[in-house]
Specification:
This protein has three helices and five strands; from the N terminus they run αββααβββ. It has a three-stranded antiparallel β-sheet with strand order 3-4-5, with no helix packed on it. A two-stranded antiparallel ribbon has the order 1-2. The longest helix has 14 residues. The protein has one domain. The termini are far apart. It is of the alpha+beta class. The structure holds zinc ion. Zinc ion binds next to α2.
């Protein structure tokens, strides 16, 4: 694990407090178990905290699995970010509302709609 990954994982775990950040109704199991890249690493997505979400499940279970299996809805909610976009500039729906993620582990609240 390189320094960027280690740093990204540490910050996102502090940000989440150990709970799934997305909380998809009917899917979420509560406890965060894995780190999701909003922009895939294959599209240039980094370990910057603005590109990460701490989610329940993994690639096939829980919110992490649901996001993997539902790309269109995940783009709409900011849970996934297209390769041409910058994660820090793409609002994301977390459990408590619509936010921008920064690289220091903070939420910046956004007005909805
Ligand atoms: Zn969840």
């Amino acid at each position: 694990m390189n320094a960027a990954e280690k740093n990204g994982r540490r910050i996102v775990k502090e940000r989440s407090g150990g709970y799934c950040e997305v909380r998809i109704r009917g899917i979420c199991t509560g406890r965060a178990e894995s780190v999701h890249h909003r922009k895939n690493r294959s599209q240039g997505g980094s370990w910057a905290p603005s590109n990460l979400l701490h989610l329940c499940g993994d690639g096939v279970r829980g919110c992490h699995g649901w996001i993997t299996e539902h790309p269109a809805l995940s783009y709409d909610n900011g849970w996934a970010v297209r390769g041409c976009n910058v994660p820090a500039e793409e609002p994301v729906f977390v459990a408590r509302g619509l936010v921008l993620l920064d690289d220091t582990g903070n939420y910046k609240w956004q007005k909805e709609g």
